[in-house]
Amino acid sequence: MQRCTNYFVYAMPMGRLSIAADEAGICAIAFGDVAHDGPRRPSALTNKAATQLQEYFAGKRRFFDIPLSPHGTEFQLKVWKALETIPYGQTRTYAEIAEMVGSPKGFRAVGLANNKNPLPIVVPCHRVIGADGKLVGYAGGVKIKKYLLDLEGIDTSKMK
Question: Where's the Methylated-DNA-[protein]-cysteine S-methyltransferase DNA binding domain (predicted)?
Fold first, then answer.
């Protein structure tokens, strides 16, 4: 768990999201009612993130423009930055992300970094699929991953 200054839990169409902030930006988003460092109180920044996520779920937002403050290793930060380049409504494979970050054989490491993404949805790790086109894992569960991809207009009917 990373150091955040405050967090709050918001109701979303797919369930509750805990959104945490530090001085620099949003530092964590978690599925469910999850405690973070700092007091449980909303701030202008967590409210702005919640509003943008509500707009995303309503189909009115494709990009997020909130300051982000993810904490991770140099490699994780590089992977998470690459995830941000995956356009709304598109997917990439772990191997493609590995290539993007200059580690062509590092698809397993990319998978591990993906799993540690502290900012799901905003840093769209749900858009990464297996080389065979399968949904594979997702920290929020494959059901939520499918929900998010369907929301973005991606045909998941053949993905398992």
Answer: 74-154
Sign of CA dihedral 152, 64, 121, 13: negative
Residue 85 lies in a domain: yes
Per the domain annotation, does 66 fall within a domain? no
Q: Is residue 20 located within the same domain as residue 83?
A: no
Residue-by-residue pLDDT tens, the chain, 160 positions: 458 899 999 999 989 999 999 999 999 999 999 988 889 999 999 999 999 999 999 999 999 999 999 999 999 999 999 999 999 999 999 999 999 999 999 999 999 999 999 999 999 999 999 988 888 888 888 999 999 999 999 999 888 7
Selecting among 125, 135, 148, 149, the annotated active-site residue is 125
Q: Which domain holds residue 91?
A: 72-150
Q: Domains in the chain: how many in total?
A: 2
Are 41 and 77 within one domain?
no
Residue 4 designated active-site? no
d(CA 48, CA 64): 10
